[in-house]
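If I may wish for something, please walk me through the protein I am sending here so I can picture the backbone:
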Amino acid sequence: MLLHEFQAKKLLRGFGISGPMGQVAASATEAQEAAERLGCKRYAVKGQLLVSDRLQHDAIRYASSPSEVAEQAGKLIGARFNFGHSQLSDQVIHQVLVEEFVEANRELYAAVTLDKSAGKIVLMASSQGGSGIEERALASPEEIHRCELKLMGMKADGDFAGIAGAVSPEPGLAIALAEVYRNLAAAFVASDATLIDINPLVVTPDQQLFALDAKMIVDDNALFRRPELAALRIENERLERDRDELEAQRYQINFLSLGGEIGVAVNGAGLALATHDLLVDHGGRPSNFMDIRTTATSLDIAHGFEMLLTSPQTKAILVNVHGGGMQRCDTIAEGLGIALRRRSKKLPIVIRMAGNNADFARTVLRNNGVQFYQSETMEQAAQQVVELCRKEAA
C-alpha cells in the first residue's frame, strides 16, 4: 500500500523525524483557512498524488498569502494527471498539503528499503538529494552509500554513524543524520514497510533536518496487524471512488456514481430524479446521476459523456434533456457528438429532447453521425433504453 505524502510524514513524525508545518485540505476554502492558521511568510501547496515527480508535472505550487494558497489549491484539486507507463498512470488530486515553505541550504537523500533479491533491509543515503536522484544513482552509483541493517528483535541496527559520516564530514550534522537514519529504520520495522524514502531531506539555514517530501510503501500482507494503516487504505480508496465527482465539477457537471448499467445524462436535478424513477419502474438501474449545469459548454458536456462511455459498467445511455433559456438542446447534442468522435466505444443511445432548439439538436446529432433511438416521451425513453440494455447484456 502506497501512502500519500501527508500520511507518510505524519507517521514519520511519530518516530522523531521532523517536517515543515502543514495541514491537508480538500477544497480551496479549507486550504486558505489552513494557511491562515499556519501564518507563514511563504507556502507550498502540494497536490497529493501517489507519484514522485510532482514538481515536474506542476502539481506543486508556491504562494505568498492565504488567498494565493486558495487560488493554487483551486487549480490543483480535481485536476487529472497522466504519468505514462512507469507510475500509477491516471490520477486525480483530491487533497492538497498546505505547508510552510522551507529554505534549504542542502538537499540530501535517505531511504530504508527491502532488497528483495538479497532478502535484507538496506539503508541508502546520499549527499545529493532532490529531483533526478534515480538517474544520478544509475550514472554515478558511488554517490549512494549503502548499509545492510540487521533485525534485533523488533529493531533494525546498523552502522548509522558510518553512513552519516560518509554523507557529511561536518561532525554536528553527521550526528543529527545518524539519528534520522536510526529513526527511519525504526519506522520501517514498526510499520511493516517495504520502502520509506525521504527526498529531499533538507538542511535548513539553522542546521535543522527536515523531511521535505516522503514516500512510504507498507506491506499489504501485514495490514491485518496494523489497523491504523488499514484505515488509511480505506480512506484512500474512498477518495478514489469520489474522483469522478470531483473531476465532473471542473466541467460544470454534477455527478454521482451509482451501481447500475444505464448511463444517464440530464439537465436539471429534478428531471434527473424523475428519470431515475422511471428507469427503476421499468426494471433498469442507472449507473450514475449526471446533471448538466446551465453554465456547461459543449466541451464540458463532451467530457461528461466521455465519463459514461469509458465506464465499464455502462451498457446503454439515456439522454433526457429539456432545453431552457441558458442551456439549449443543440449544445448538449454537440457535446455528445464530440465525445463520440473522441471515443471508439459504441453504445446504444436513447435520446428524448424537448424545449429550446430540440429539432435543431436532432439535426446536429445526425450531422455528427450520431446513431441514436429517438423517443417522444420520458416513459417511452426509459422503457426503450432498458430493453436495449438487456439486449446488450444478453
Remarks:
- The chain has a mean pLDDT of 90.
- The chain has three domains: 20-100, 106-237, 250-393.
- The two ends are 38 Å apart (CA to CA).
